[in-house]
Amino acid sequence: MSLHLVGIDPDTKTGDSSTVWFDDDTREFVFQGWKADVDLRRRITQTPAPGHAPGIPDHEDVIRMPARMVEVLRKACDVAERAELG
Hints:
29% of the residues lie in helices and 23% in strands. With 86 residues, it is α+β, with helices and mostly antiparallel strands. The protein has one domain. The strands form 2 sheets. The protein has a 3-stranded antiparallel sheet with strand order 1-2-3, covered by helices on one side. It has a two-stranded antiparallel ribbon with strand order 4-5. The two termini are 17 Å apart. The mean pLDDT is 89.
């Protein structure tokens, strides 16, 4: 697996904060973020989304990332687009 670090939370103090990578082999984003707490998981389960089954499947999870990472997420999208063109 060829992971490319795209960026880390710009406000990190310890270097272990929310992070985004791009995996060249699978063409997938990889996110490290805060675990969703019980309240968020409940809200997701109770909020209907058209075309989306209720709940969070056992093979998936939900994470939170701070809005201040918008630029990192945009950069990740640029990396993905370049990978698709390359």
